[in-house]
Design a protein that fits this description.
heterodimer, A: 391 residues, alpha/beta, 6-stranded mixed beta sheet, 5-stranded parallel beta sheet, globular, B: 66 residues, alpha+beta, two-stranded antiparallel sheet, 4 strands
Chain lengths: 391, 66
């Protein structure tokens, strides 16, 4: 099949990388990029870090230069949403009323913040996914004295760290027993709780949110399930994300956990998906994964584009991700269940620098570095090889 | 080809070292990128381009890349 028109929906890291890969691999046909946000493609990890803290101007997050974007020789439809797909007839509907035919489609629409069933209409209640979200939250942080962050995952923990650095009184609330316990397990979770407490953040673990208090349409506090009310004029809801697949309802695609793909990132004939929105069967792990991390957006964007060109290979990455909080950088390779064992193999947690391995079913399945980047990289091989667990 | 590595943008992932170990290394203390050579020979160019593509913090730039 010679492709004549490829449409990429979503122009963040995954979509843009897919478009570039198509060109690099020799695709010379028509290329259309559809992006919901009306600004040039930007990078998201710095939003909850450098942009929120003010250490970077927003322009510094640009994913590519203007020259790079021009060189793609693509039709950019920014500020335009995809609103519907008919995979059988290969037609895409857009928010401007137009209908695009395609013979190759890349779905890279990412995720949207999960919301509480209440309170999001109040002034002062925020989510954080986009540049606009970030700048809106930053404006309020600059004049506020207290923030409550609901949800102690990557986003919540990073925002708590930044807000604390800006001098706010910060409370971090999560129903689980420790911050980031879902990602890193109880031992690292306890260390992260201590890290935040050492910086003056009040960590309220093991308690849920039952409501938001308001005064004149503005949030005034967060009501916890134990009856406590935490006063706050600013609240960030950071309780995870949901794949942005609403526009695909009725498309014929399988959507139970994002866009479901096979090992080659194929969702349907001539349709591939990449990045946060895509779940696929990881050939090495033998199970379905959906990865909401920056590195995966690049790697899967490349893999999905190659599949579209008939050069696809099973997508079998070792996931990599990181988080920056205060003066700590945590980096991770791998993917493991919450029940995995953990063992420190290098450095010393007491000195704030160490590498820990995660073991599951007799094999090394992950490696975590706490302020020890170079040494962590040297442990990656054990994760790739699923080395025997000897700890 | 001229390679530029932005140590302020770098997040110490080490992906560049995995892609092109003859061109990139990491500082011992904090893992930030170190350029071993900024004008690598032609046979390394594709590895360097791959390093720039996969860098999760967009900290590697190439100039005069024909």
């Amino acid at each position: 099949v010679t492709l004549k028109h490829v449409v990429v929906v979503g122009v963040s890291a995954a979509g843009l990388t897919a478009a570039e890969t198509l060109r690099r691999e020799g695709y010379t046909g028509r290329l259309t990029l559809v992006g919901e946000e009306d600004r040039p493609p930007y990078d998201r990890p710095p939003l909850s870090k450098q942009v929120l803290s003010g250490s970077w101007q927003p322009e510094r997050t640009a994913l590519r230069t203007e020259t790079d974007l021009t060189a793609l020789d693509a039709d950019f439809r920014l500020g335009t949403k995809a609103t519907g797909l008919a995979a059988r007839t290969r037609e895409l509907r857009l928010s401007d009323g137009s209908v695009l035919g395609y013979d190759g489609l890349v779905i890279a629409t990412g995720v949207t913040p999960r919301r509480l069933p209440f309170g999001h209409g109040l002034a002062g209640v925020h989510v954080l996914r986009t540049m606009s979200d970030t700048l809106a939250l930053r404006r309020e942080l600059l004049s506020a004295t207290a923030i409550v962050v609901v949800g102690a995952g990557f986003l919540g923990a990073e925002v708590a760290s930044v807000a604390s650095g800006l001098g706010l009184h910060v409370t971090l609330v999560d129903p689980l027993p420790a911050p980031m316990i879902r990602q890193f397990g109880p031992r690292i979770g306890a260390m992260i709780a201590t890290l935040h407490a050492d910086h003056g953040v009040v960590v309220r673990s093991g308690v849920g949110v039952s409501g938001l208090a308001e005064a004149d349409g503005h949030v005034s506090g967060v009501e916890l399930s134990d009856g406590t009310v935490l006063p706050a004029g600013v609240v960030l809801i950071a309780i995870g994300s949901v794949p942005a697949t609403g526009w695909l309802a009725g498309s014929g695609l399988s959507l139970s956990n994002g866009v479901e793909c096979d090992a080659l990132c194929r969702a349907a004939p001539q349709v591939v998906a990449a990045g946060d929105v895509a779940s696929w069967t990881h050939p090495g792990l033998g199970r379905r994964l959906r990865v909401e991390h920056r590195m995966n957006a690049t790697e899967q964007g490349m893999a999905a584009a190659k599949t579209l060109l008939g050069k696809g290979e099973p997508f079998s990455p070792v996931p990599y991700f990181w988080t920056d909080q205060y003066d700590v950088r945590i980096q991770v390779y791998g993917s493991w269940p919450a029940e995995a064992e953990i063992a420190v193999t290098e450095g010393d947690p007491g000195e704030g620098r160490f590498v820990a391995l995660y073991g599951w079913q007799g094999a090394v399945v992950g490696a975590l570095g706490w302020n020890m980047p170079r040494e962590l990289r040297l442990h990656r091989r054990q994760v790739v090889d699923r080395a025997p667990w000897t700890h | 080809m001229k390679v530029i590595a932005d140590q302020d943008k770098c997040i110490a992932s080490g992906q560049c070292v995995l892609a092109a170990p003859d061109v990139f290394d990491q500082r011992d203390a904090d893992g930030i990128v170190v350029l071993l050579q900024d004008d690598p020979p032609a046979e390394l160019h594709e590895d360097v381009r791959q390093a720039a593509r996969v860098c999760p913090s967009l900290a590697i730039w190439l100039e005069d890349d024909a």
